[in-house]
Write a structure and sequence with these properties.
2 domains; 314 residues; Formate dehydrogenase/DMSO reductase fold; globular; mainly alpha
Length: 314
Amino acid sequence: MSEVPLQPSEKLPTRRSADPTYYETPLLNEPVWEWAIPAYYYIGGLTGASLALGAAAQLAHSRKLEPLIDRCHWIGLLGTGASSALLVYDLGRPERFLNMLRVFRPTSPMNMGAWILSGAGGASFGAVLFRGRRGLPGAIGRACGYAAGVFGAGLATYTGVLVANSAIPLWQEARRVLPVLFGSSAMGSVGCIFGMLAESTENRRITRAFGAIGQMAELAAGIVMEKQVSVVPRVGLPLKRGWSGVAWKTSAALTAASVVLGMLPNRSKKRRIAAGLLGTLGSLLLRFTVQHAGVVSARDARASFHQQRAGRAI
């Protein structure tokens, strides 16, 4: 029997000498988080910013602000419940969330997030239950309101720290601005939601200013983030190309349109609702875009290598 000569395979992986990777294979695994996590970013941010606003309103000691404070605390109570449900859904089993509370680890953003969410929920429950009563119960309620504001500020921003605390190039490059982006977007979300509700003139003035500051800070943080991640051009591509690039620009356009509508004089109810809906959509889309852009960045076989060769990986 004659031997068949071996032929060299034409399917062996090759690499570009000018821009090598590990045979075009992504260096990182992409995030496995589903829709529940970016939804949690939005609801948790809205909840946290509401509690922070309620605590700030308490400092004024004005009876005119009581409806606003009560609404902030109710949003905090319902929002922490919804946020917990989303986390449990993503984790798969409730005990996995409870297991995170078995330790206290300040170096872990995920562990701190579980404690912040639990603290915000407990404090908002105490504020709803006791605030406004006389004597000791009332004092406990006021203290819970202030504590809820502290936990709320953490809840509105810690998700940005959590996302940035990863090896994914896009998120890692944006680590300094992501908490600011998420926190300011949370403020804008509160202004949009409250702007669509019936409020007194004084309360509307406060929530409109709170939301406008947040939205303008969100737009500024978005510009800064795009510049930071583009220091290494390959890392910044997900915010400029593909679905994530379109969604990134669309979210900024929706937020900018909401700001413009909110600043026009003689705001009618329809205009307030339109501004609120545009801002809400922009804030939601921002969270899903950051999530999807991270997935795209992890799939890019060259992004991590370019980042490391530029000496920017940590």
